[in-house]
Amino acid sequence: MTRVVCLTPNPAIDVTYRVPTLTPGGAHRVADVLERPGGKGVNVARVLHALGVPCVIVAPLGGPAGTWLADALTDAGLAVRAVPVAAPTRRTFTVVDEGGTATAFNEPGRPLTGAEWAAVVDAVNEELAGAEALVVSGSLPAGAPEDLLPRLIAAGVPAVVDTSGPALLAAAGAGPVLLKPNADELSAALPGLSHTDAARRLLALGAERVVVSLGADGLLGLAGGEAWRVAAIPGVTGNPTGAGDATVAALVRGLIDGTSWPDVLADAAALGAAAVLEAAAGDVDLAAYTRFLPTLHAERLE
Amino acid sequence: MTRVVCLTPNPAIDVTYRVPTLTPGGAHRVADVLERPGGKGVNVARVLHALGVPCVIVAPLGGPAGTWLADALTDAGLAVRAVPVAAPTRRTFTVVDEGGTATAFNEPGRPLTGAEWAAVVDAVNEELAGAEALVVSGSLPAGAPEDLLPRLIAAGVPAVVDTSGPALLAAAGAGPVLLKPNADELSAALPGLSHTDAARRLLALGAERVVVSLGADGLLGLAGGEAWRVAAIPGVTGNPTGAGDATVAALVRGLIDGTSWPDVLADAAALGAAAVLEAAAGDVDLAAYTRFLPTLHAERLE
Predict the structure, then answer these.
(1) Domain residue extents for chain B
(2) Which residue of B lies nearest to A29 if distances are taken between CA atoms?
(3) Using the 8-state DSSP alphabet, how is residue A278 labeled?
(4) I want to staple B276 with a disulfide (CB 3.0 to 4.6 A). Which of A77, A103, A129, B238 is the partner?
(5) How far apart are CA A106 and CA A10, in angstroms?
């Protein structure tokens, strides 16, 4: 039985090329090509799947790239509800050199038609029957309906949203159980405020809880009148892409399991750190997670 | 009726991204994505098609990328004989900045099985029935049979070959009607010789004619005991990718039409220059070609 529905409004095939060095203006022979299903909602679902939480990915998919992506997710053991759309699914290209420097090229998501967005909403609502939570992660393609997230959140199943820009503010007003911006996204949406004040503004707009991921400064979690903080694990370095998605996976699991708020935050920080150790977004080092968890505790700020 | 069969042993989808500037280590939002069928044999066929010479592309194609490539060629009005293979067709990925600097990342062609190579040879031989020439253009994927080009050339239809490395020397021994290396390819295959001496070596190995494209220094053409030279059009700048393929298209057209050798060479130089003016490999500026042609004449060196 599906417990969590993971909507990925802007899925991608993440292509990674390894080259010895990146020389602008040069011609590079690529020794190693890695293609992997991507998009933040896909990464959240991968982590939930690794944690044993039954979930389904809902995503608009188009063209040969969309077919490839659906097949690759199914092959990885993930449940997928593909919503067929005309526009081909986008790619991201990342070039990694021998020193580990990553240079990313992100195609924009191609616009969907109004009827295609309506089909996405219908698919989410069908999959939500009997589910305990909805996760919406990632950007929206240009031209997405402004009321898309409010409508999905208002449908009644507790919604956890990790997005940015105007969509973040629009989501807050519809009463999600949790918003999870990172520090940059929060500052961009609500400039000129401290992280705590900006998070309070999201609560005032209607969010029940707000968690702000602060990278090396850990996590900040607000709920009701309380603010909590979890420090980061010292010395954890690696690939930060996907850490936020692992954090979201831990948060949604904690919420549907009824775990206490401080324990949910500590768990989310530990799983985020365990994701940093993995080269690919959507993977977590479960052994490291088990080591990290007892060392982390949420501290009440106010 | 097909006059020319264009074998592309290593086809690709050429993906071009436009970005304002390329910053190593940065994350780039890609405003403009262009996907186009690529591979040198494909480019030759595009130019022959633009010249009104009926031709067919033979290429091993695999995966969703292979399907896309066959469909895109068909949509462009080109005849394609796709040989289905298991390995997905590769991509090349070029990032062009606002200053026009192109940074290229080329995936290697994935290996085919022996049975797949046999199917490629069978397809070429079937398409050659009634045709006047075979063109083989581009690199061979790793693991291609060493006797692939010799067997195709020895089949009897006049063969024009544009390749590099050991395959260039192997082709020479089988008696092709024409080899068309560029200066770098010729020097790499036969190091330490002048272009003329290296070209003579290819004649000695068995090639009937050799044309060396020298970029801004024009073309060098050897046949029998004669050596001819055509200067480049002064001041033509732009995209040199695809100029060699336009040159090959002009050479093969001239040979099957029975045009005199000096006129074939002048025509090839004019069409190559007209390709430099176009942003995409496989396109030629036919108006420029018409202007250039009367200004070019082959000069006999010996």
Answers:
(1) 4-300
(2) B106
(3) S
(4) B238
(5) 12
